Amino acid sequence: MKRIAKIIALSMVLFVGCAFTVPAATGTLESHAASKVKISKKKATVVKGKTLQLKVKGTKKKAKWTSSKKKVATVNKKGKVTAKKAGKTVITAKIGKKKYKCKITVKNPTVKISKTKVTANTGTSIKLTATTNGKSKKIKWKSSNGQIASVTSKGVVYANRAGTATITASANGASARCKVTVVTPVDPVGSRTNPANLANGATIKLPDGTAYVKLDKILKGNAAISQLDDMEQWDEFARDEYSNYPNTKVVYFEYTVQASSGFSNRPFEGFDIINPYGLYNSTCTANISAIEFLNMQGAYEGQDYSKLTLYGGASSKMYMVLFVPENLNAFSYPIYKSDYSQFWTKYAF
Q1: Taking a C-beta distance cutoff of 8 angstroms, is the pair 276, 293 a contact?
Q2: Which residues, other chains included, contact 122 with Cβ-Cβ below 8 Å and sequence gap of 6+?
Q3: How far apart are CA 205 and CA 189, in angstroms?
Q4: Does 34 or 43 have the greater pLDDT score?
Q5: What letters, b where the CB count within 10 A reaches 16 and e where it falls short, cover 125-145?
């Protein structure tokens, strides 16, 4: 009997213990389930015009969605956020008395372009690409000067003539720009049909050294006389010389010259660039009769007289003045390089 009584007593103790512990366990499970309910994002950035889907996870109950600033972003009854205007708003999902919030930042769209600056030779083309993070992916292309650089609807830029133009890629109210500089390519050798234009600058290897020559300015007629007058070179002698050659026009050529290397045995001289007694027509096919020139220190002069004769490393401005027949508006001249081949140059005025 005593043994039976002990068993009954032990069973009652276990029953009572279970009665007190079960509710506690049930409360823990309920708290754990409640802690799983949350909004899918607590903060997000959305581009104007785009949408973001928000959800409340951990419950099957329907949420009531609201936006604190509808001008910035709206939200529908399913939690879909639509970005309207740059700014900040708070999207709230309410379930019963519980609120779940997401901070939304709306930013304006941007456009990114593959190049912001490019240089192209005339007659060539360049492919530009652009991307946008806005709602529409369509890029609109525009040139500030189509005569210099035109652009197609696919971003292909055609370099038409020397100058500078700005290519703009636009989408979703945003834009990006590329500065296009179109240059005329330097002909490093020249030919009879396409002589080099010294206005683009050229480095020439001559028998006595290497020189860089750039034709900066050509003036003719009264403009040339006015320039010489300002330089105090249009004196009585010059006027008398000009009167001896009727039916001609005064043409003034100004260069930047640098004797880059060499020229240790003799200096670089103006006649290394052009000699009035060795001119050809514009196609380099026939000689032109000698053209008279105004004798100013051997036809060329530096701004600093001490630099008139340029040895290796020296540079200066030089000029020549010719009395050119009225009917002549272009000619060419061969410069003989170190291998004694001809470097054909052209002049148009």
Answers
A1: yes
A2: 159, 160, 161, 162, 182, 183, 184, 185
A3: 11
A4: 43
A5: ebebebebbbeeeebebebeb
Cβ neighbours of residue 335 closer than 8 Å, sequence gap 6 or more: 204, 206, 272, 273, 342, 343, 344, 345
Cα diameter, the chain: 158
User: Predicted confidence band at 283 (pLDDT cuts at 50, 70, 90)?
Assistant: confident
End-to-end C-alpha distance for the chain, whole angstroms? 137
Quote the CA–CA distance of 122 and 164 in Å, as a whole number.
Answer: 12
| Per-residue confidence (pLDDT) for residue 295, from 0 to 100 | 64
pLDDT tens track for 170-189: 999 999 999 999 987 655 55
Q: Give yes or no for a contact between 209 and 187, defined as CB atoms under 8 angstroms apart.
A: no
pTM attached to this predicted model: 0.47
The alpha helices in the chain, defined as continuous H runs, are: 2-35, 222-230, 236-243
Contact 135, 50 (CB under 8 A): yes
Structure tokens at 293: 């020139």
Specify the pLDDT at position 339: 87
- C-alpha angle 89/95/98, rounded to 5°? 75
Contact call for residues 132 and 139 (beta carbons, < 8 A): yes
Of 11-25, 172-186, 254-268, the poorest mean pLDDT is in: 11-25
Instruction: Assess contact for 65 and 39: CB atoms under 8 A.
Output: no
Segment 323-345 mean pLDDT:
90
In 3-state terms, what secondary structure has residue 295?
coil
Q: Using an 8 Å Cβ cutoff, are 344 and 191 in contact?
A: yes
What is the per-residue pLDDT across 115-159, written as a single tens digit (0 to 9) for each?
Answer: 999 999 888 899 999 999 998 999 999 999 999 999 999 999 999
Of 214, 120, 201, the closest CA to residue 162 belongs to: 120
